[in-house]
Amino acid sequence: MASRYFSRTYRTEAAWEDLCTQRLVEVGTRGIEVSVAGSDAVQLLAYFSTPPPPHQGLPERVGEQRGHVELLAEGWLEERDWQEEFRRHVVPIQIGDRFLVDPGELDRPPPVADGRIVLRLPTRTAFGTGSHETTQLTLEWLEQVEVENRTILDVGSGSGVLSLAAQRLGARCVIGFDLDLPSALMSGQYERLNREPSVPRGRIGLYAGTSGAICPKARFDLLMVNVLPHRIASELGWLAGRVRSGGLALVSGVLDAEENSVLAAWRALGLDPVGRRQRGEWVAWKLTKGGSQ
């Protein structure tokens, strides 16, 4: 008997595409197809293994509209390999001035680097291969801060793209962790795939788990946090404490509507903004713990 997917089709304003996509990821979507639905609207076709649970902000009945999102249709579909369809059309992504992320399959010729650092991350189930604005914003910050010989903690590492980028920039030690087991397993494979014997590598450790595995006395030169704020709200104090005096934090995954409250929370913990970037609805900051950098 063939497997089936449960699908839901949403319509939303183009400006809300990223937020809707993130919400669908939170409730366990297996894949999303995006198509234009007018001059300023998009249609999102999301696939699930089973009907998703109720989730704040997403309509639950066909014809229902919540804010900027309307549920147009739902139903069961025969299995299809959405990732294979995506991989057939995917192209390398230039990010910032130094990175080129290639989410294509390994049987394709490697992309022309043109002097950029190439990170090969064939699309699988892990979230965060470089296409999302929050990841791109963090990579753009990363290439502009001092990374060589630094120690780095990557929170919510996903596919490990940020950790791998930091390692290629010369970090002495990188530790990344994520609660999602498939992401952590894929990040290990990506790390092996991107090894270059001719390039000296710093130590890198990527694992599935919580911050509890980090030594309480450990301090890092650079903290990278590309996570939705509500997911780490209870750990902000712990995270801030892992940044050494004079160290930096790159914080992304924040909607501009939440900017003031999230930034105030980091400030209260001794981390002050010294730079800001925005793409679409998402913002990212460079923060410093004491002193300016």
Number of helices: 8
Strand order of the largest sheet: 11-10-9-12-13-15-14
Cα-to-Cα separation, first versus last residue: 60 Å
Topology order in helix (H) and strand (E) letters: EHEEEEHEEEHEHEHEEHHEHEE
CATH superfamily of the largest domain: Vaccinia Virus protein VP39
What is the radius of gyration? 20 Å
Report the count of strand segments: 15
Indicate how many domains the architecture comprises.
2
Unreliable residue runs: none
CATH architecture of the largest domain, please?
Answer: 3-Layer(aba) Sandwich
| Helicity level | 10-25%
Q: What integer is the average pLDDT?
A: 86
Q: Outline the biggest β-sheet.
A: 7 strands, mixed
Percent of residues in β-strands: 25-35%
Derived from helix and strand composition plus strand pairing, the structural class reads alpha/beta
